[in-house]
Every structure is written in C-alpha cells, then in structure tokens.
Amino acid sequence: MITKQFHHILGLWEEAKVKASNINQPVLISYTEKVDQLDPLKYFKASARHFPGQRFYWSNPTKSHVMVGAGVAKEFTANGTQERFHGIEKEWKRFSGQSLKNQDNQKIGPVIYGGFSFDPKKEKTKLWDNFADALFVLPTIMFTSIDNENYMTINYWSDSEESHLQELMRIKEELGKGSSISHAFAPEIVKCLEMDPNDWKESIQTVTNRISDGVMDKVVLARELRVLFNDEINVDHVLENLLEEQSNSYLFTVERGSDCFIGATPEQLVKKDSNHVHSMCLAGSIGRGATLQEDEKLGKNLLTDNKNIHEHELVVQMIKSALQEVCHDVTTPTEPNLYKMKHIQHLHTPVTANTGKEVTLADLVNLLHPTPALGGYPREISMETIREVEKLDRGWYAGPLGWMDEQNDGEFIVAIRSGLLQGKEASLFAGCGIVGDSDPESEYRETQMKFRPMLSALGGIKES
Ligand SMILES: C=C(O[C@H]1C=CC=C(C(=O)O)[C@@H]1O)C(=O)O
Ligand SMILES: [Mg+2]
C-alpha cells in the first residue's frame, strides 16, 4: 500500500532526479516529520539492530537539544592539517546547498555530525585508526528533539533505489517504537594500566620549569588510563549511566564499527545560531564536598585560589581576543562562577558575541581550537611542547566534536571526560592545565578526579 507519506517521498525523489541531471551531481533529499514523544535512549538502542557501529548520540546539558543519528548516508573526511575545518564545511555546503526538503521548518533539516582530532600534527598510533583527523557523517535516519518537539528525518539521494526508500520507511517505523532492552550485567574491570605516575609527574616538572623560564605561560598535559574488562563493554549501558550521573554535561557517542568514542563533557567550544555566538571558558578545578558546607567551602577556595584563577584567566583572555577578530559585542561577566558536576567543580566564564553573515562556524572553530583549556598559551609553543613531552596519542580526546546544519549553524563541544571503547578495552583520557606554580602531585590527583565520570559510567568505581 502506498501511503500519502511515501507518495511524498517518491515525489521528492523524482524532483531530485531531474535536478541531479541538470547540476550533474547527486541531490540530497531530506524528509522530516514531527513525531510523538520518544525516549532518545530507547531510539538509540533500537537503532543498533539496523545500524550496528554507525550510531551517534548528542545531548546538551538541559536536554533541550537531543540528536540520535543512525546509518551513513554520506561521509565527509579529511586527514592532515590543511584546512580541515573549512574542508568539511565546504564539502557539506556543496551538497546541502542543493538539497530538497519536504518542509520549510528551518530548525530541522539535514545535519552532519562528527569531530576533529586534537592535533593532526601529532604522530599517530593505531589506537585511533577509525577516527580520521576530520570525520563527519550525514545519517541515514535521525531523531531530533528540540525544546520538547520531536522529529524524525530520513536522508536519501536522487540516485537511491526505490526499494531502498521502502526499506527506509519500514526501519523508520520500527525505530519509532524504540527499544527498552536493558543490560543488567556490566563487565568487570580486570586491570588498569597507566604510564608510570612518576614519569608523568616528571613531565609536569619539565613544563613548570620552562614556564618559570618564561618560555610560555601554560601547557595542558594529559595522561591515559587503559582499562581492561572481562567482557565486551556495552555502549548502550555506558551511555545510560552517563545520562543518569552526568546530567550537567553534554553527552556524546560516536560509533565507528567496533570502536566507540563516548563522553560527558561540560565544555562547550562554540555555538553559532544565526549571528549569535556562544562560547565558554572552563579551567581551574577542585573536588566536590561530601556535605553542602564542605562543598561550598571548596567552591569558595577555588574562586579565590591564585593558581586556578591564573589558569582560568589565560583561557578567558584568549577566547575573548580570538572572538574579537570576527565578532562584535564580545561579552563576559567580570568574575568566573562555579560549574558543578557530580565529581568535580570548575571555574566557568560564559562568553556571548554577535557576528556577521560572512563568518562561518568553521571560521569560529578554527580560531578557537585549541583554547588554553586544552592546549596552552601561547598556542604554538604549547602545542609543540605537548607533541614533545606528552607520551600518548590524544586522537579525538580534547578535540572539537559537534554538528552543523545547512544554514551553517551548529555547536561544537570539547571532547574531554571521554574514552575510546574497543571491545573489552577502554582508553580514558584526562589532562590538566599546568602553570608556573603547578604542583605535580596535586595535578596528578586532579587527573584522577577527571577520570571518575567515565570510570563510574563503566561500572569501575563504587560510588559512596
Ligand atoms: C583537560 C581537561 O580539563 C580541562 C577543562 C577544565 C578544567 C581543566 C583544569 O582545571 O585543568 C582543564 O583545562 C580534562 O578534563 O581532561
Ligand atoms: Mg586545573
């Protein structure tokens, strides 16, 4: 039976075929419909059956924006340093600029999502083989929830087969029902491997010495914790735990075959919504207290601690001056406030600005990444120092991860508090901002604290 909806889908397909032959390239069709309330996690779980290893999850801290993508309608990649941000944007524009849609809702349409490695110049290891320096996906099917309104989008091409469109319709109906399979048994940790803590602390000392010599002001050094389990890690289960425990963070999951990059980050890099730009300075950390009084005391200590204020201020200055290059009305409060999550609290300064039509999302990411919250200050010398001193392959850890739509709006976060899941292994990453008076021992403890969100979601630490 041909439904009215399928008739519409076929109609757009016929229209796209004509357009494709005129412009001599395949034309993308993006069909969106409003759907009833649907739990995004159930949708994410359900999509594993048809799109194993090809799922994406994104939610902002307030959950006013949730996206779940599945399948690959098109992939956009770039490797190496040359213009990777603009390269992806340009290629996406080439297709999205010619796309056909079934409705004029400017909010919902085709979206690509993905991420960038932290530093394309760093020597690569095999660990991140499945994650290119720039990799974005236009999903086959996407669920979007914006301000509690829910939509399903299917993306197909002028050169698709009719049988493929029928199959898409069928899968869309099935996914709309969701799946509530839950996994009661999480695998157990067999072993945790880390580089010798003394070697890491020595590298902190090397950097503080250089900072004291006036070579630079700040460098962020990270370390990796490799966690081995007695069984395969279940992505759905980890995401479910993160959703429960890290409600004040952006949550993200990018599956690439048997690998999955997942995390719960509090840190936004940039959001562009028409001419409005938002960014965030997040640097300077302390733990959470067991009682309200203790917690407030810790927060107060952080707000008045000179080392942390300096670590934070370098980020504020850099983000403000980077945005001032292409924006006007760059505004921040004069003092940082506290951003609290389950295991940690940070100094936080929100930034807003306005920009002109000619400025693109890639321009903004290119200007901002890496901020001194992940790289250091000044940028070049701190990046060279990380390449030289840090004994790990960051891959997508601390890189920009996010989405862009066809109006060139979108949002990128900084992919920290994250881990790469590969079968029975998880590689977790955590870093901290090193300034002149950093103490190696307390920086080490700070990274331990930053591993906790992922360790806990993996079932690795028992919460008190
Ligand atoms: C580099 C990380 O955190 C950054 C973000 C917030 C606070 C930070 C700090 O206090 O050192 C770091 O700059 C990480 O979590 O791996
Ligand atoms: Mg710090």
TrEMBL record:
EC number: 5.4.4.2
Swiss-Prot/TrEMBL cofactor(s): Mg(2+)
Keyword Isomerase: yes
GO MF annotations in UniProt: isochorismate synthase activity
Keyword terms: Isomerase, Magnesium, Menaquinone biosynthesis, Metal-binding
Biological or metabolic pathway of the protein: Quinol/quinone metabolism; menaquinone biosynthesis; Quinol/quinone metabolism; 1,4-dihydroxy-2-naphthoate biosynthesis; 1,4-dihydroxy-2-naphthoate from chorismate: step 1/7
Residue stretches making up the Chorismate-utilising enzyme C-terminal domain: 197-450
Catalytic activity: chorismate = isochorismate
Pfam families the UniProt entry points to: Chorismate_bind
Active site: K218, E267
Residues where Mg(2+) binds: E311, E446
UniProt key word Metal-binding: yes
Superkingdom of the source species: Bacteria
Family, similarity comment: Belongs to the isochorismate synthase family.
Role noted for this protein: Catalyzes the conversion of chorismate to isochorismate.
Protein's name according to its UniProt entry: Isochorismate synthase MenF
